[in-house]
Amino acid sequence: MIAAVDLAWRNRIFYAFVAPFAALTIVFGVWPIALSVQVSFTASASALGTTPTYVGFANYATVLADPLFVASMARTLLYTGLAVVANLAFAFLAAALIDSPRLRRGTMFFRLALFLPVVTPDVAGYVVWRWLFDRSFGVVNAAADLLGLPPFGGIASVDTVLAAVLIAELWHHAGFYMTIFLANLAMRDRALEEAAAIDGANTWQIWRRVILPQLRPAIAVNLVYATIQFLKTFTVVVVMTKGGPADRTNFVSYYAYQLFDQGRYGEATAMATLLFAVVIALSLGALRFVERSEVR
């Protein structure tokens, strides 16, 4: 009887602490998404009024028939794939280097140096990168000229703008993924590595057969988070490229913003809803992929 009462009180305390966060999530998360989906089914002229006119799936039909949206979605998926691979690969290598016993000194410096950009305000960081990539007075081209290398087009060239944006985003986000990898590396069972070494396993075999399987939780978290993060890339585009040059960085989130700014609310929210569906689908797919590989 006493145990049951104690458990009931624990449950009440738990729900008392969870309730404010659940309320905030509903008010500032779920409710705005629901309203956005509702607006996507209304005519733009009345979408924000008190009596909106519902047009069914007309906005979705218009968006899906728009070649600019189709190209923007393809561009977004391509960039997301490149950004996820680049960020997770860099973060993993950085974490492995910092965790290595060969690097006995300076680990705290590297941790801070790589994580500091994560807490740097987005706009401030991307403004600096825009200056760095400037073709006239940017440091990147000044260094290339000093080394006798060809100039880097940066954000002004259709051939290099994706690389420039990718570098800026890697600088800003990779430290976060590195921290998750480091946390998982710190929790691994090192006795398994010692046993594998005694059995004659080399460094590559230990990493592949012993360490990597223990990093699956970190890989899953980073893969899902990075997929979500880069599918909705927006701030870096607003600050550095405005979707250019030649629409090369006009991703779905920025294209939807442009339509919303033009008063095409129904089509803009339809794009946002489609992007949201893609985010959910790819995130669940990434999580399922990691879970299936873990079963194997």
Q: How many domain modules?
A: 1
For this structure, the CATH topology is: MetI-like fold
- Unreliable residue runs: none
Shape: globular
Q: Helix count?
A: 13
The number of strands is 0
The class by helix and strand makeup works out as mainly alpha
State the name of the first-level CATH class: Mainly Alpha
Kindly state the percentage of residues in helix: over 70%
What string, H for helix and E for strand, traces the elements in order?
HHHHHHHHHHHHH
Distance between the termini: 45 Å
Mean pLDDT: 88
Rg for CA atoms: 24 Å
The proportion of strand residues reads under 5%
Name of the CATH superfamily: MetI-like
Biggest sheet: strands, sense, closure? Answer: none
Give the second-level CATH assignment, the architecture.
Orthogonal Bundle
What's the topology here?
Layout: H1 2-39, H2 58-64, H3 67-99, H4 107-119, H5 122-132, H6 139-146, H7 161-187, H8 190-198, H9 203-214, H10 216-231, H11 235-241, H12 252-261, H13 265-295
Helix pairs in contact: 1-13, 2-13, 3-7, 3-10, 4-7, 5-11, 7-10, 7-11, 8-9, 10-13, 12-13
